[in-house]
Amino acid sequence: MKYDELKVIAKSMRKNILTMIYKAKSGHPGGSLSAVEIMTYLYFKEMNIDSPTDESRDRFVLSKGHGAPVLYAVLMEKGFIKKELIPTLRQVGSKLQGHPDMKKLPESGVEASTGSLGQGLSIANGMALAFKLDKKPNRVFALLGDGEINEGMIWEAAMLASHYKLDNLTAILDHNGLQIDGKNEDVMTIEPIDKKFEAFGWHVIKAEGNDFGSLEKAFKERKTVKGKPAIIIAETIKGKGCSFMENEAGWHGKAPNDDEFCKAMEEIGDIGDKIKGGGLHG
Amino acid sequence: MAKATREAYGEALKKLAVTNPDIVVLDADLSGSTKTAEFKKVSPERFFNVGIAEQNLIGTAAGLSLAGKIPFASSFAMFAAGRAFEIVRNTVAYPALNVKIAATHAGLTVGEDGGSHQAIEDISLMRSIPNMTVINPADSREAEQAVLRAAEYVGPVYIRLGRMAVEDVYDDSYVFELGKGVLLREGKDVTIIATGLMVQEALKAYDILKEDGINASVINIHTIKPIDREIIISAAKETKAIVTAEEHSIIGGLGSAVLEVLSDEYPVPLKRVGVLDTFGESGKPKDLLEKYKLTADEIVYNAKEVIKLKK
Predict the structure, then answer these.
(1) ipTM for the assembly
(2) Are A156 and B62 in contact (CB < 8 Å)?
(3) Are the CB atoms for B187 and B216 separated by under 8 Å?
(4) CB–CB of A123 and B59 under 8 A?
(5) Which tens digits make up the pLDDT trace of A86-120?
């Protein structure tokens, strides 16, 4: 798939993310929008995932579970979740829980229930261990938030992944620089992230997380590294694609009002041509 | 023969290593004590030590189960149920994953390590979580069967195991049934409902009471959740007075679970024998059981008191 096609998918996802959160009148736009290109690239270029139930599929764990809308959005583009569910996010009885609940979305591509931060990397480790044990080729990907790596459990998991040489595991850090209370460095210093993961035995790759070309280079490099887990530290813009949300910590967990929603949708613009088989306007 | 329930756990794991290729075992640097090392001896490739990291222990087990394995994750009860509580709650029980948490060194009989290591809240914590099954075996035979049964059952299970050797309650003919209480003695004056190592104390109490002319029923509740409501209500109707006994805080454990059932359906006077809202301390297990009144004598005393309250 060409970058132009990926960009169309990303636009559609951004609109769906904003619509979900606008209708719900709550949710986390900032950290959903920052990860749109990462998720698009994973699901349409990198992962082996044509069906949400095929045993041979690669697995994805959204460790930063508050980014649920971006996961739902990409699974909608894959055709695993129906787009009719968009207005139901966070409503009573909805399959689209505020944080991903795999029980409510069986066989839909939600591989783990997450939301309480710091736990997804351990889940991904367990999956990767199982595939290694069975000598299966499945790969496992986990998306972490940068604020999330404040959690001690992340570092327990970081140790384990390297101890067990999980080269079928790739973590991607959505490094948008902001967490609820403000900038990472003001809340809790996480730098130097690269040196920390290197010291824990990981292969570290840096990328521009809102740029498909840079992501492609990073994932290609990942494939060349054997015998250890890898993390792609993806520099992203929180709220990407929506000028007034970009780089604003205040948009971590706030829904747009009517005017803001209209402005955001206008900025993202027309989605463009349908993609063959993509179910874009489904 | 006196044997610790954790020993039985190790033996059951050894059997499972041979009979079920999907079983994997995880430990957090306590495999010699929890007896998961027995599994490692037979199936080292399916054993994962996660180091001293109990949160990651449970999270990794969750991931293994999502990829089709049946993980048994072990540590001391204090850490498996206590430190890792929120991971058990959100990552295992919320999606009802097929993870077995076998927690050893529960209760005061950890002994010399002292109050910091004596989990007396774990039953309370685990049974409050939706989707969770909670088992507290009375002796080594029951423990072995409970572990084998947990491996077959699909869903999260917490199995509470002890460090100290306990006398046999059962012989080889015993068949463990998940979710079913066991009527061990039948009497008309009072019912003693016990769990774990307090079942043997309940049986001793039965003998003492008999000498005093009091006929007690004795019930073993090995599955604290889902609890056997039927056997509890039937005992309440039969004897109209109940004593519960557990090596656990009187807050939130077996006593509370039985009270909940009775309060809903058939209230009768009830006395709870357990740890009285206090922490433990260092000491020999037997001395601690004496000091904290987890004894047959204490059950006898409470049985006589509760009989006085009968209408």
Answers:
(1) 0.96
(2) no
(3) yes
(4) yes
(5) 999 999 999 999 999 999 999 999 999 999 999 99
